[in-house]
Write a structure and sequence with these properties.
Layout lengths: L1 E9 L8 E7 L3 E9 L6 H19 L7 H22 L8 E9 L2 E7 L3 E6 L2 E5 L5 H7 L28 E7 L5 E5 L1 H4 L4 H10 L2 H16 L6 E8 L10 E3 L9 E2 L16 H22 L1
Antiparallel strand pairs: 1-10, 1-11, 2-3, 2-12, 3-4, 4-5, 5-8, 6-7, 6-9, 9-10
Helix pairs in contact: 1-2, 5-6
Length: about 300
């Protein structure tokens, strides 16, 4: 596999950043995931971190070096994160369960598979056009999908989600794939802090017009600026498939030379599970990303 990836998370006007993101890969498979801990419920940062850790742990276990059934894996790993949150709340006798949205994508062979629960989104942009976007699990998008056939009534808050991880009921998980990718295709995973401030046309245009190392931070800064002092946290992972950018920047990853058992990840394996004090702060997240990028650069220098 050959791809470029760039991830960034910025705290907006919130007291803390409850977004988490990261990616893992083997020689023949890559997992990209983002979670947004939900306000109004306890320990959103634990929920988002735990859901990603659960998924990354299952990916490390099952990608040998490929995931045999990507759609099934996405469903089972998201549900495993949900059950981990229920256990976490039960063991600590919490009055409410930590909750989070999640969106995840597997790249394998020439195909992409993705799944989501909640309103964290995935965009697929090809040749300057939006090819696909996830549909939020909110009442507003539900009504839009039903073309107003089922009226919601004035008392319903259309921005409220009807499903997430950690909720009392079984999470609703939407699956897409396989979608065959073309060189230069760009995928963007993002929290609602981004799309809440920028419309789909703007996101598509900026992502299409520049490299992901230019587009991702530009999108984040625009969203923060437009939303102002009350901005939500803004988190994105941008991926370009078989990009020409690989040979010239620190974002490029080529996995063909990796051994069957090699596993790389920006998702910390132990932080946050059972101990909220161990959660990564923003400086540690950025340091982790720099370490990954430096390792990529060293690898590229050795190949040359």
């Amino acid at each position: 596999m050959r791809f470029s990836v760039y991830q960034i998370s910025r705290r907006g006007g919130r007291e803390k950043n409850e977004d988490r993101m990261g990616y893992c890969y083997t020689r023949d498979s890559g997992l990209f995931a983002l979670a947004d801990g939900m306000g109004g419920h306890p320990e959103g940062e634990v929920a988002s971190q735990m859901s990603l850790q659960t998924m990354a742990g299952m990916f490390q276990r099952d990608a040998k070096p490929v995931i045999r059934e990507p759609r099934r894996f996405l469903t089972e790993s998201i549900l495993a994160g949900h059950h981990a949150l229920i256990r976490y709340a039960t063991e600590r006798a919490l009055l409410d369960t930590p909750r989070t949205t999640i969106v995840a994508c597997i790249l394998q062979g020439r195909d992409a598979y993705w799944a989501h629960c909640g309103d964290s989104r995935l965009y697929l942009v090809r040749g300057g056009r939006l090819q696909a976007r996830t549909r939020d699990h909110s009442y507003s998008e539900l009504q839009e999908s039903l073309n107003g056939v089922v009226p919601l009534g004035d008392k319903v808050n259309r921005n409220v989600l009807f499903t997430c991880l950690g909720s009392p009921g079984k999470p609703v998980i939407d699956l897409v794939g396989p979608v065959t990718l073309q060189p230069g295709d760009k995928l963007l995973l993002c929290s609602d802090g981004l799309w809440g401030a920028l419309d789909d046309d703007t996101i598509t245009r900026i992502l299409a017009d520049g490299t992901i190392t230019e587009a991702a931070p530009d999108l984040v800064e625009r969203a923060l600026r437009i939303a102002g002092e009350k901005s939500d946290n803004v988190t994105v992972i941008a991926v370009e498939w078989e990009s020409a950018e690989d040979d010239e920047t620190l974002t490029g990853i080529e996995t063909d030379a990796l051994g069957d058992d090699v596993f790389a990840s920006t998702i910390q394996a132990g932080a946050g599970v059972g101990n909220p004090d161990d959660l990564l702060d923003e400086a540690e997240i950025e340091r982790s990303i720099r370490e990954i990028n430096e390792a990529i650069k060293r690898s590229a220098q050795k190949r040359s």
